[in-house]
Amino acid sequence: KAGWAFVLGYSVSGMIQAFVPKARLTRHMGGANPRSVTLATLFGAASSSCSFAALAAARSLVLKGAHFVAAVAFMFASTNLVIELGILIFMFLGWQYLAAEIVGGIILIAVSSILIRLTYPRSWLEAARGKVEAESEAEEEDFDWKERITSRSGWHMVGHKFVNDWKMVWEEITIGFTIAGFMAVFVPAAFWAAIFLTGQADVLPGWLIALENALVAPFVAAATFIGSMGNIPLATVLNANGVVFAGIMGFIYSDLMVPPLVAINARYYGWRVALYIAGIMFVSIVLTALILNGLFEILGIVPESARKVEDVAQFK
């Protein structure tokens, strides 16, 4: 049932990767200004949704002179604002969550950009950039997109990128659906109720439950080791078990905080910067989940926990 979303999404992603000159965009991402962040967001939204690919692409942006603010914005955009993820969220969770994903993705990028600018450890990040440059051979990627889009080799490249993207994500997607299946069948609702304080609305104030959910969700996401595409089925399990809106959104946004991805950032930039980026992401995710929760409550469109995994996907 989800297969068509992947085919459509990765086809669009492959076309953009093949026909949009990366060098032309990265020239304008050297600052921490709104223009750089906006370009990085648009570029990320047009890229692959694979968490591992997002980290590799962000590293290439840093190598070509992009500011770390722009690199983090790119990572968030490429794992939260891509078309295939939006389709899955709409199918599995409904239109309110899709709207929250888009609005929240923009808020997430804005919050993280502000936090990095406020806490910017210049010497750490300059050392990290030097590490990337020392370990890489700079390659300029520029071309005539009009010539490429009308050539057979250009469309062959689209197919090649489609296959490469799928090779990078099929394992985490399979693992994500499988874990969601096991949890839907074997994990009792009492387990999620204990972790996310579900059913405590008569005892605890709503804002405290939302805060606890937003704080706990990233750790639950990290424990699953699932990336951006694989965690939507599991988010549906949480949704069906009564986890509040702030917790669901915090879980969805935390795909870049799983241990393997933090380890990859450490390989790229060193542990000090990798943990700094993870810390910025954690604080940004919690704040964004709470802002979304408050905004949707004001608008009266906070989604109720209703949809179940078995309504959209089968595990037999």
Walkthrough of the structure:
The protein is mainly alpha-helical. Helix content is 76%, strand content 0%. It contains 17 helices and no strands. Helix 7 (95-119) crosses helix 16 and helix 14 (245-253) packs antiparallel against helix 16. The longest helix is centred in the middle third of the chain and has 35 residues, at 152-186. The mean pLDDT is 82.
Sum this structure up briefly.
This protein is mostly helical. It is built from 17 helices and no strands.
Secondary structure blueprint with pairings:
Elements: H1 3-19, H2 22-26, H3 34-45, H4 51-63, H5 68-80, H6 83-93, H7 95-119, H8 122-134, H9 145-149, H10 152-186, H11 189-196, H12 206-224, H13 231-240, H14 245-253, H15 259-269, H16 271-299, H17 309-312
Q: Radius of gyration in whole Å, from Cα?
A: 19 Å
> If you average the pLDDT, what whole number results?
82
**How large is the count of helical segments?**
17
Largest sheet, if any?
Answer: none
Please trace the helix and strand order, writing H or E for each element: HHHHHHHHHHHHHHHHH
Features:
316 residues
